[in-house]
Amino acid sequence: MMLLQKGKEWKETREKFTTAFTSSKLRQMFPVLDSYGEKTFVGIEAYSLEEDSEVYWKIKAAIAPTYESGVRGICYFFKLQTLVEWMKLTFPQRAALDYFADAFQHLVKLCQEGNGKISNLIDIVSSLKNNDNYIKKYAYGDRKAVGQPFMFFIAGENTIIMSLAYTLYELAKHRRVQSKLRDEIREATLDDGAFTYEKILGMKYMEMVVQEIMRMYPPLPFLDRECTKDYTIRGTDVTISKGTQVYVPMLGFNFDKNIFPEPEKFIPERFANKSQYNQNGMRFFPFGEGPRICIGERFALLDIKVAVAHILTNFELEPLPDTPKKVEYTPLVFSLVPKGPIILNFKPLAA
Ligand code: HEM
């Protein structure tokens, strides 16, 4: 899986998959995202919900947060190799991967029959599976081949769904922001009532709202790196030795009042000029930074925006008595997953 690969193997894999997320590929995917806008799942779910929902829900059950999956994730991300070996852990869980293998075969079949709606990722995985050179160099067997699309599923699915849930939650609590955003959405569709890739990308207030959500609720709240050569931090006598694992507390940056005044408040306007935060060093990087920056960033932002645009066109979002005043996170996983349900009222708007 690319997430866990290093060096040349990572570089080669990354280059292949980057081609699935270019502007022209995103533009091609737009009608699919748009048609599933109200459900807001990545392409894979579009297939599995329609064609084989049992497999989908089995995968969901197998990757749902549990104490076991929490320990597994922590061991992998914090490089506790001895524990990984001692507990014979696999990442992802074997059961989840087995279910996913079924779904993957199903998708390949659909794409081969010409029924596939998004075949980019499947095409790339299939091309790697048929590339003798790559197979030999990186022992790329069936298991690894299934691991790649599975990785996109785990890296992309929960992050998008969580971000959307937090966006709707904050919009329900902040009616002025909600109404301003709805005005922008309506204005963009005054001509023919339809959304396009360009219209969604052109929504400036939408961009500010989504960035503010990424600040308050970064789905992955830290970054991890391994130091590849001894490095002395400029102006100090602190040296980070080669091989040290470095963790960057992104969530801490996002709630630092010296960078973001009144950090507990939801204020999309603070992102009217996003680049100000990274002018003198990196301060805001919800998708990471450098060569390992999230490969799905543009896809994720597009998907979230399409969903929000559809939802606000059709519904007024309101908090209910059971809506949490503040979101609490589950301690079972290292990503920011809410502890309990976020209940909201979707009041239909007159057409
Ligand atoms: C709101 C949604 C998302 C957020 C906030 C997010 C955030 C991140 C972050 C912080 C990283 C680590 C970057 C670094 O270390 O510098 C990452 C890596 C990654 N993300 Fe995302 N992500 C999201 C959605 C997605 C989606 C939709 C996909 C795929 C379709 C995806 C695929 C990946 C992959 C493959 C990596 C590893 C890249 C590599 O190691 O080269 N992510 N993401």
Automatic annotation (TrEMBL):
PROSITE patterns: CYTOCHROME_P450. Keywords: Endoplasmic reticulum, Heme, Iron, Membrane, Metal-binding, Microsome, Monooxygenase, Oxidoreductase. It is found in: Endoplasmic reticulum membrane; Microsome membrane. Its cofactor is heme. GO terms for molecular function: heme binding; iron ion binding; monooxygenase activity; oxidoreductase activity, acting on paired donors, with incorporation or reduction of molecular oxygen. It holds the Pfam family p450. InterPro entries: Cyt_P450, Cyt_P450_B, Cyt_P450_CS, Cyt_P450_sf, Insect_CytP450_Detox. It is a peripheral membrane protein. Gene3D superfamilies: Cytochrome P450. Its main location: endoplasmic reticulum. May be involved in the metabolism of insect hormones and in the breakdown of synthetic insecticides. This is Cytochrome P450.
